[in-house]
Amino acid sequence: MFKSLIDAAQNSTFKSPFSSADCQTAAPPTLPLPSSDDAVSTRTQLSPNHNFAAAAAAQGDSCEFGSNHYFLLCGLGGIISCGTTHTMVVPLDLVKCRLQVDPAKYKSVFNGFRVSLAEEGVRGLAKGWAPTFIGYSMQGLCKFGLYEVFKVMYGNAIGEENAFLYRTSLYLAASASAEFFADIALSPMEAAKVKIQTTPGFAKNLREALPKMTAQEGITAFYKGLVPLWMRQIPYTMMKFACFERTLELLYKYVVPKPRADCTKGEQLIVTFAAGYIAGVFCAIVSHPADTVVSKLNQAKGASAMDVAKKLGWSGLWGGLVPRIVMIGTLTAAQWFIYDAVKVFLHMPRPPPPDMPESLKKKLGLTGAQ
């Protein structure tokens, strides 16, 4: 399925960054753009009235922007960023889930930690780490890898000028499409994780949980939370990517005292972390009600998402918001930092924030404007 998506992008009638699928191959005739970092940005000509900005494989780059190699490395970056960060915050996630499903017992974040430590010890705080690591690694692969695929595919479809003018909508559409598939990959492990963390005595680890869940409810046990997971994750990811992309653009435009090209890679990573944290706060708020439903749904056997939402009520849907803001803000910032750091480490193309195409400047009478 994923291969067909990549092939569709590469075989698009608007074919742009996909001029060559092999790294280090010669690029087609190009017109130079302002340089960024250690790669030379270029503009690939599509037709007399249509071209799309792309960073071709340049000296020092490990691959060409938009190639299969590039997309695979983006997926690898997603695995590393999502799998490791979600696993690191398992203790906070465990307490957050317990606050959502049993507020009478776990009255606050600190009380939740205290009760959990008293009942299960320090090792108990690591409950659910295995399904968390596996599930979110799979999700990260699809989320970041497919986001890059869809962003290029949709950008090609609407053309360079529209891709710039409606770039926020482009980010939203690409991220929503990627997350749709990412949640299908995540759902089984998310269901197992919540079951382990919120159902006392059910299972100590993933090896115990999987056969029990299969025996009790069959394959539906792993996908009954898929719809509320989509409700939680798709808005979250749309905000995560769109807010990050636009915040990054604004930071370089109004806050950072020098152009991105003049910043060191370390300085760029700091800006990436700041933009990621800002995006994470908004992500947590937008997706929290659905997150509460997912946590409760995987604990309540036979209940539907609507049943759970009605039982919780409006105020109940916001239980555990504060720890989730702290967790998701830090998580999102760390993920973007790690993802960008992986790109730097692997010498991948890292195009600068989008700039208005020359053709659009001419139409608006801005040619020669700074």
From TrEMBL:
UniProt key word Mitochondrion: yes
Gene3D superfamilies: Mitochondrial carrier domain
Protein purpose: Transport of phosphate groups from the cytosol to the mitochondrial matrix.
UniProt cross-references to InterPro entries, sorted A to Z: MCP_dom_sf, MCP_transmembrane, SLC25A3/Pic2/Mir1-like
Main localization, broad class: mitochondrion
One example GO MF annotation: phosphate transmembrane transporter activity
Keywords for this protein: Membrane, Mitochondrion, Mitochondrion inner membrane, Repeat, Transit peptide, Transmembrane, Transmembrane helix, Transport
Solcar repeat ranges, renumbered to this chain: 69-153, 166-250, 267-345
Subcellular location: Mitochondrion inner membrane
GO cellular component terms attached to this protein's record: mitochondrial inner membrane
Domain of life according to the entry: Eukaryota
Family to which this protein belongs: Belongs to the mitochondrial carrier (TC 2.A.29) family.
Protein name: Phosphate carrier protein, mitochondrial
Membrane topology: Multi-pass membrane protein
The keyword Manganese is assigned to this record: no
Record GO biological process: mitochondrial phosphate ion transmembrane transport
The encoding gene: Dgri\GH21821
Pfam families: Mito_carr
